[in-house]
Specification:
The complex is a heterodimer of chains A (131) and B (516).
Chain A: H1 2-20, H2 25-45, H3 72-102, H4 121-125
Chain B: H1 8-26, H2 29-55, E1 60-63, E2 74-77, H3 79-100, H4 110-126, H5 130-149, H6 155-185, H7 190-198, H8 205-222, H9 231-238, H10 241-264, H11 278-298, H12 302-323, H13 326-356, H14 373-387, H15 393-404, H16 410-437, H17 462-480, H18 482-497, H19 500-508
Antiparallel strand pairs in B: 1-2
The chains are: A mainly alpha (131), B mainly alpha (516).
């Protein structure tokens, strides 16, 4: 069990980091998603790997630690999942807008070796969006 | 009633943000501005009360949901937290004034996002729980994405993309560190952590170091320490002026977290982790400062220069906090608000300059269009203050820091701080000369001939000048009231360096209505 969780975290992190370092926005977003899965598993396992024990108190079972699993990591994971979800949504929107404006899905907004398109850059460089 | 005061700096902006979202459907922008302003003034009153309470030396602890601190989440305010919250509010006032001069019409949901950003910042400064710190980091960041990208297109979206991806990656790292910390110590309460770190088993020390190291990496990434600063100049230079002014405090959140964990968890009595990573932080701080100096010299736009000045103040504060003597921390805490106000003023000024010069923007050109005297004068004040020349507040901060450096570190620290200040002086002088003095086209005229303003230059409103002047006013006030401010920061430094009282206060606070 420990080995399974540890190797799952390891493989996810390796894949996530590899994708994060690529130059296309889509790959980067996938990389971030994989990394967040790895993180969720890691946090979950910080309450120790326990089988068949509930995290909430039940009638008829003595309220001592050995009958239950640690509920806190589960709450933490829930928070982490929600936040990672929201962040992924934000980064997808930004990436799509980037692609639409710059006509390239390269993370720098233009293909390497080619100058960035000047269409909007100057108008926007002063931080003044057009109405 | 007073025990709930700690909640106000978090809940008030959050509620105002929600109200503003409802209002903006039906009402004019004037109503939104008024609501925002009223809320900000109430916030100022609350933070000043907090500051007054904290200056007495007491530590306020608030148990959320009345759970005991080892189980639930605590909020707390000591001198450092109160100071940071007050700085945030003081900085937010001119930023809001500047935006209210007209920029807020063009950015969707500006006022609501602004308030949520404040809630996130205040929460990060007031929480005593490290997972809660993560949550407030995220609140703050997600609002900052909105502020940065609202109404953006083209290059700003690209810069925003880097900023968003970088911060999400850093947040993921934060979570990994938190998972390890919880697995090791079984708590996420900072006061509780401070106690359990001392009793870490010898076989776990390596893992504890790894977890704490990851935490520090995350904080340093937010504070833009050297290898992790690349996102900063482009993002800050592309952000709208009012937003850039508020963003100045975002890097300080990372510094606050470094200082808080550095004194509380890795303090001198932390057993195997005592003084963890202090030397590394010192070295990286020194290199960051030098590099930022070079950045200021090399900047071809005023705003890029201003971004590097933010970076330089980060480096300076890292040095102050890594040396971790009462004198350096006190000097750093004096320097921190000063550098916020100064850098924010520089961003606002850069935007004013940009519009007065129309086509030329804030680029450094061989020949500049003519500029009004007032703008040049403001530039002079801000630049003098930021470089650290007498008589303004930057000088006092740097002077105190250099005076407090321990004997064995003087050679390196003096050389780097003074050297990078010289670089900044050169860079800002050159920018100032090129922007304000070398004007008028042919250079043959008598200099008094009125040169027509470039056509189509938008007018800079009085409110915008007032916002910039207010920031400079803060700096001058900090200079005039240096004595009281320093007494406060010295007391704050002493409080930080004896964390026993803090730990006792947090652990000793018991629920009122609940059986522990």
């Amino acid at each position: 069990m420990e080995f399974a969780i540890a190797s799952a975290v390891g493989v996810l992190v390796a894949g996530g980091v590899y994708l994060l370092l690529r130059a296309r926005t889509f790959d980067v977003i996938l990389g971030l998603t994989l990394l967040s899965y790895a993180t969720n598993l890691l946090i979950f396992s910080s309450g120790r790997a326990v089988i068949g024990k509930p995290p909430v108190l039940r009638d008829g079972v003595a309220a001592v630690a050995e009958h239950y699993t640690d509920p806190l990591p589960q709450a933490l994971v829930l928070t982490a999942i929600v936040i990672a979800f929201a962040m992924t949504a934000v980064v997808v929107v930004v990436a799509m807008r980037n692609h639409a404006d710059m006509r390239s899905d390269h993370v720098d907004g233009h293909e390497p070796g080619r100058p960035p398109p000047d269409a909007h850059s100057d108008a926007d460089a002063d931080g003044e969006p057009r109405a | 009633m007073m025990q709930h005061l700690l909640l106000v700096p978090i809940v008030l902006p959050l509620v105002t943000g929600a109200i503003l979202l409802l209002l903006e459907r039906r009402h004019e922008v004037r109503v939104l501005r008024a609501t925002s302003a009223v809320s900000l003034l109430l916030l100022l009153a609350a933070t000043l009360t907090l500051l007054a309470r904290a200056s007495g030396g007491g530590i306020d602890v608030y148990l959320l949901g009345d759970w005991p601190s080892r189980i639930g989440i605590v909020l707390m305010a000591d001198r450092l937290s109160a100071q940071m919250v007050t700085t945030t509010t003081l900085l937010a006032i001119p930023a809001l004034m500047y935006a209210s001069a007209g920029w807020d019409r063009r950015a969707l949901h500006f006022h609501a996002l602004f308030q949520v950003q404040l809630a996130g910042l205040n929460g990060a400064f007031l929480t005593g729980d490290i997972f809660n710190l993560f949550v407030f980091f995220e609140v703050m960041l997600i609002a900052s994405y909105g502020l940065l990208l609202s109404g953006a297109r083209g290059e700003r979206i690209s810069a925003g993309m880097h900023y968003v991806v970088f911060n999400i990656a850093a947040s993921t790292l934060f979570l990994i560190a938190l998972g390890l910390v919880y697995g090791l110590f079984g708590t996420l309460n900072m006061a509780e952590l401070a106690v359990r770190v001392r009793e870490v088993a010898p076989e776990d020390v390596a893992l504890a170091r790894a977890a704490c190291g990851l935490l520090l990496v995350v904080f340093c990434a937010k504070a833009a320490l050297l290898p992790m600063y690349l996102w900063l100049p482009e993002t800050y230079a592309r952000a709208p002026a009012a937003v850039a002014a508020l963003f100045v405090i975002l890097t300080k959140v990372g510094l606050y977290a470094v200082l808080r964990t550095g004194t509380l968890i890795f303090g001198d009595d932390a057993g195997p982790l005592a003084g963890f990573a202090r030397e590394a932080l010192l070295v990286f701080g020194l290199v960051t400062m030098l590099q930022a100096g070079l950045g200021v010299v090399g900047a071809m736009r005023l705003r890029i220069g201003a971004s590097y000045l933010v970076l330089m103040s980060s480096g300076m504060l890292f040095i102050a906090f890594a040396l971790a003597t009462p004198g350096t921390i006190a000097a750093g805490l004096y320097y921190l608000p000063h550098s916020c106000f100064g850098a924010a003023a520089m961003f606002l000024l850069a935007h004013i300059v940009q519009r007065e010069r129309a086509q030329a923007g804030d680029r450094v050109l061989p020949m500049a269009p003519p500029m009004p005297c007032l703008t040049g004068f403001i530039y002079l004040l801000v630049a003098v203050s930021l470089v650290g020349l007498p008589p303004l507040s930057g000088f006092i901060g740097k002077f105190l820091l250099l005076g407090a450096v321990p004997q064995e570190d003087t050679a390196v620290v003096y050389a780097v701080v003074l050297g990078s200040s010289l670089l900044a002086l050169i860079g800002l002088t050159r920018t100032g000369t090129r922007l304000f003095w070398r004007t008028g086209g042919d250079g043959e005229g008598d200099g008094d001939a009125p040169v027509p303003q470039p056509a189509g230059a938008p007018k800079v409103s009085r409110l915008e000048f007032a916002a910039t002047a207010l920031l400079i006013g803060y700096g001058i006030a900090m200079t005039l009231a240096a004595g009281p401010v320093l007494r406060y920061t010295t007391a704050a430094a002493e409080q930080l360096l004896s964390p026993g009282e803090y730990v006792q206060e947090v652990r000793g606070t018991t629920p009122v209505m609940r059986e522990p």
